[in-house]
Amino acid sequence: MKQVYLDTFGCQMNVADTDRMELILFHSGYRRTLEKEDADLILVNTCSIREKAEQKIFSLFGGLKPLKMANPDLILGLTGCLGQQDGEKLLQRMPYLDFVMGPDQVDGIAQAVDRVRDTGKSFVWTGFDREKAYTIPELPMPKAPGPSTFVNIIKGCDKFCTFCVVPFTRGREKSREPDELYREIRQLVDHGAKEIILLGQNVNSYGKRGLHNPIPFHELLYGVAEIPGVERLRFTTSHPNDFTRDTIRAYRDIGILVNHLHLPVQSGNNEVLKAMRRDHTIEEYRDLLMELKSEVPDIALSTDIIVGFPGETGSAFEDTLKIMQEIGYSSSFMFAYSPRPGTPANELTDSVPEETKKQRLQETIALQNRLTAEQGLSYIGKNVEVLIEGRSSKPGYTFKGRTPQYWNVNIEGREGMKPGDTVSVKVEQVSGHSLNGPLAREANSKSSLHPSGA
Ligand code: 5AD
Ligand code: SF4
């Protein structure tokens, strides 16, 4: 039996791609190992969204080089966004690499490994096939999916925000046929999945390109919600410009669609939004969320924020703090702007000094911590509904899971629960974005807790 070691950097799309490679390689006789030293094949699935991600990857490869030197039979591959972005340059920089692949070649991972075996030559395999439909052929699953499972519905991005490499590394938007998605979701549910998270760089654009039977995103939501056994439905990531009124109505109509939305704002200032080519104003963004809140009052909102974009003045930055406060995000992913090769913003002067970026980043983090803490405290003494996802690593707690609003929950005590169960937990303590407590007493009757049972 051959062994593969897989390492993943970056976003959920990359995690999904790594899982796919693991599955394909399983069918070519590879088993995953957690020890690099035992591996016949090492794959690093890379990210190039910010410079820091790249630096981490290069330092990881520095550590892998001696393994390859000691064992020339070891196959070493670099996959993912950095592969697509830098291609040949990576082979020049790291001649001990056997191959470099892009995100669009994931389904060819077994062929890539065979090619190294057959020829002994290193190669780069990147690029996009515009004509090819986006399909993920079904393969038997050797292990059950977790209770909460991602399903890719769309790949690529056509938005071209000026700071972002994704349209270049993951190519043009393409959606997967609804029938293929429904089939995959039925299979996942048959194997124990309870929560389905529809995944894509911009899920709201679903159905616009690449489909024989195009349906808009909200119709896909209604379709998935009808599949028996799907107990919770989520999606990520959304773009404000493609987020429709019909999707707001779907939140109101679909009981199992969770009360959480991740809607990146990036900046609270109109000038900066324009320079980022987000193509909406902060007023439009706010109005959209207000409308959603009026339909779904207890919806939790999270976001992505970039500080220090070229030209961001002190007062423009204050606007970002203002929108954070106004919306009251439950959590945020916050980043200092990092110039990326090939992006339009890379042509602008990176005008905000690193020190200022750092300071602004700290300010957003401090504000978000306050907002999260305030909301967390409001849960104390209340019962929350939790889908158990696995064992908790927090001392004194047995299981962990998430609420519909996507708060982490650590559950105290009683055995007899298992991943996949939905239970009610009484919140007694809060730490960061985690709610902690014991099972609520009325949790004995599981069926009464099922949102889909209504
Ligand atoms: N610099 C900093 N953050 C970035 N992001 C994307 N590109 C950059 C960049 N060049 C952030 C955005 C995006 C998230 C996935 O990463 O906030 O929504
Ligand atoms: Fe990048 Fe903008 Fe596309 Fe998001 S919407 S992936 S930030 S280009």
Descriptive report:
By secondary structure, the protein is α/β, with parallel strands linked by helices. It folds into three domains: 2-125, 3-Layer(aba) Sandwich (Rossmann fold); 148-375, pyruvate-formate lyase- activating enzyme (Alpha-Beta Horseshoe), CATH 3.80.30.20; 383-449, Nucleic acid-binding proteins (OB fold (Dihydrolipoamide Acetyltransferase, E2P)). The protein has helices at residues 12-26, 51-70, 81-86, 88-93, 109-119, 166-169, 178-190, 217-225, 245-253, 270-275, 282-295, 314-327, 354-377; strands at 2-8, 30-32, 41-46, 75-80, 99-101, 123-125, 148-152, 154-155, 174-175, 195-199, 232-236, 260-262, 300-307, 331-336, 383-391, 397-402, 408-412, 422-426, 429-431, 434-438. It has a six-stranded parallel beta sheet with strand order 2-1-3-4-5-6, with helices on both faces. It has a six-stranded mixed beta sheet with strand order 18-15-16-17-20-19, covered by helices on one side. Helix 12 packs parallel to helix 13 (354-377). The chain is globular, with a radius of gyration of 23 Å. The termini are far apart. The model is unreliable at 443-454 (pLDDT under 50).
